[in-house]
Amino acid sequence: MPFGAEDTLRRVVARLSGAGVVSFLTVLKRFGRGTPAMLSFPMPGWTLALDIPAAQSGLAGMLTELDEWVAAAGGRIYLAKDSRMSAAMMSATYPRLGEWREIRRRADPDGLFASDLARRLRLL
């Protein structure tokens, strides 16, 4: 989340805590500038990584709600750690996605190089 969105970060933690969600590993990092890459994750602000048991009741819906909070605050979800983000959330949080898709189309017009993540997020 960008600097200035710390209230949203606190809301995320409070929502998870209030629902009894326990993280066995939590990492909060402060980031500086990202790279000029079109799908670069870092931006000036904060990132919060939580390892949560997938069997937690109601977790999927709650995480979708938290994704919406992150997007509304101008944040992103880290692609290398993602296993559930929607294509709509990808489009909403990575503003240079269209540029990346165009380069990808030119480099691989037949769509030979693909992954489950690329199909789920409609990166192809």
What gross morphology would you assign?
globular
Helix content: 40-55%
Q: What's the end-to-end separation, in Å?
A: 26 Å
Report the structural category.
alpha+beta
User: How many DSSP-defined strands?
Assistant: 2
Order of helices and strands: HEEHHHH
Number of domains: 1
Q: How many strands, which pairing sense, and closed or not: the largest β-sheet? A: 2 strands, antiparallel
**Count of DSSP helices?**
5
- The average pLDDT is 93
Radius of gyration from CA coordinates = 16 Å
Low-confidence parts: none
Strand content: 5-15%
Strand order of the largest sheet: 1-2
How would you name the oligomeric state of the polypeptide chains in this document? single chain
Protein described:
The chain is 40% helix and 11% strand. It is an alpha+beta fold. It has one domain. It has a two-stranded antiparallel sheet. The chain is globular. The mean pLDDT is 93. This is D-arabinono-1,4-lactone oxidase. Residues 62-120 form the D-arabinono-1,4-lactone oxidase C-terminal domain. It holds the Pfam family ALO. InterPro entries: ALO_C, Vanillyl_alc_oxidase_C-sub2.
Please summarize what this structure is:
This protein has helices at 6-18, 59-72, 87-93, 97-107, 116-120, and strands at 25-31, 45-51. It is α+β, with helices and mostly antiparallel strands and 124 residues long. It is globular, with a radius of gyration of 16 Å.
